[in-house]
Write a structure and sequence with these properties.
The chain is mostly helical. It has one domain (2-126). 80% of the residues lie in helices and 0% in strands.
Length: 128
């Protein structure tokens, strides 16, 4: 429960922080967050110790990084897609699923955070 409260709080702070920035700068911040969130799973994979998980998480980070890079410029909807897809990526990290081992509370918090941020970015793009 605490993880969910923290996820909602951090998502609210993340969204509010974007309000004080120009649209372009906010997209850059969100792109950086998406890349960082995706990259954190490489650390989980290294801690997990299974080489195939390190490769898988590294490849996923490249894909999310590409969405972040192109999303902060010409195609901002890629950031929405990136965060929404990353929420699904968290879901795949539940015990017995694909990817590196993570605590279920972390994956659930990630799903909530990513979903809120994806929705916020989508609404921001619509009103820009």
């Amino acid at each position: 429960m605490i993880a969910l409260i923290l996820a909602v709080g951090l998502a609210a702070i993340t969204c509010a922080a974007g309000e004080g920035l120009s649209h372009a700068k906010a997209l850059h911040i969100y792109a950086l967050l998406l890349s960082t969130a995706a990259g954190s799973y490489i650390g989980f994979a290294v801690a997990d110790g299974r080489r195939d998980k390190i490769v898988l998480e590294s490849m996923a980070t490249v894909v999310f990084g590409a969405m972040a890079y192109y999303g902060m410029g010409k195609w901002p909807l890629l950031l929405v897609i990136g965060f929404a897809t990353h929420a699904l990526w968290h879901l795949l990290h539940q015990p017995g699923s694909l990817g590196a081992r993570v605590k279920p509370s972390f994956a659930l918090a990630g799903i909530v955070f990513d979903s809120i941020v994806a929705l916020y970015i989508y609404l921001r793009i619509l009103h820009h």
